[in-house]
Amino acid sequence: MKKNLKWMKLDNAAKIYPAAKRKDWTNVFRLSVTFADPVDPHLLKEALDRTVPRFPSIAVRLRAGMFWYYLEELPEAPPVLLEEEYPLNRMSFRAIRKCAFRVLYYRCRLSVEFFHSVTDGTGGLIFTKTLAAEYVKCRYGATFPCGEGVLDVTAPPSPSELEDSFGKYDSPVAASRKEENAYRLTGTREPDRFLHVTTGILDAGEALAKAKSHSSTLTVFLAAVMMKAIYDIQNEKVHDPKKRREVRILIPVNLRRLFPSSTLRNFASYITPGIDPKMGDYSFEEMLRVIHHSLGLELTPKKMAAKFTPNVRSERLTVLRIMPLFVKNLAMKLVYNVVGEKKSSICLSNLGAVTLPSGMEPYVTRFDFVLGVQADSPCNCGVCSYGGKLYINFIRNIREAELERRFFTELVKMGLHVTVESNERG
Known about the structure:
Blueprint: E1 7-9, H1 16-20, E2 28-35, H2 41-51, E3 60-64, E4 69-73, E5 80-82, H3 93-98, E6 101-106, E7 109-115, H4 121-140, H5 165-168, E8 196-203, H6 204-213, H7 218-237, E9 247-254, E10 268-271, E11 274-275, H8 284-298, H9 301-316, H10 318-321, H11 325-340, E12 346-353, E13 364-371, E14 379-386, E15 389-396, H12 402-413, E16 419-422
Parallel strand pairs: 5-6, 9-12, 12-14
Antiparallel strand pairs: 1-4, 2-7, 2-13, 3-4, 6-7, 8-15, 8-16, 9-10, 9-11, 14-15
Helix pairs in contact: 2-4, 6-7, 7-8, 7-12
């Protein structure tokens, strides 16, 4: 058992998640690796024991102080668990106080589910790939150099991996947070909190070629298909055009691509391109152009820094710093309830192409990225590609699969071949 456990403050983006928690919801996301053979849980635990010391900002538990929550390193690696329920089953706050992530296995699949205060998709992917690499070494005796996001578990963590990069790269100008509320999907909630996960599998090359045929990137193309699906749903449900809300897609941005940061903590922002149906009908090509130009305008270091600067400034206010934690929680929860989810219709997060060291590739057949549902919005979508396949994962807590059906049907109409998997109950 370790003594004198190290601790660190939550990064700027992480502070909202403990405050925003609900009795039946916490902000959690999932990364999965599928191997060629069934997972050996004993060797997976051995690999986890090796991996955990390399990630002192991720292998943590959440603690509450008088003024702020903070993260404390784990005294030892947690157990690995056989997955017996649906993905992203609620992570209770009691569990997060013991360990803010969990490692699961089922048949050939290894999954890691992270409480979002610990890291973002990029940091989570690096942890998951490193754990998978250690498992491959334990299971098969394979040897290969580190790289492609796989870290050397025998090396000490770099201080740059532990920094809160928001405070380092904030702007002298703060952008306005003012936006209209967006249209949000509704449906019949599952009474037992069951989460439906539907995965569309495409040939990555075909999907990229289709995006290029529209003079678009893959992310912009998928966001436009998503926008059209939600736009059509609203038009059918809300007959009076004057009562229709904006359809806005939240697209996360990995800020490490804009700023010289190698942090493994949260360092992401977002862009929310949208259309206003009250202005008239929109074609698919118009939606593409709106999203393309919105990203072109917003996706710059100065614009993105101005976007996250208001949160950094709030954190530095003396009155906020000395405010007791329970008061901060009430204030941040109120802000999240008013602003956090109402400004977008859905989140579409594309982690991009997952790459591995060449000596590891023969043992890994698939990667998946699944976002948790939002607190008050029933659907989310995570995307990644690996091995020439594109994996689009929808998650929802309602019975109706209308959004996924429309989204994948639209892709098929465009000539793309889609294989659909689901954990739907009979």
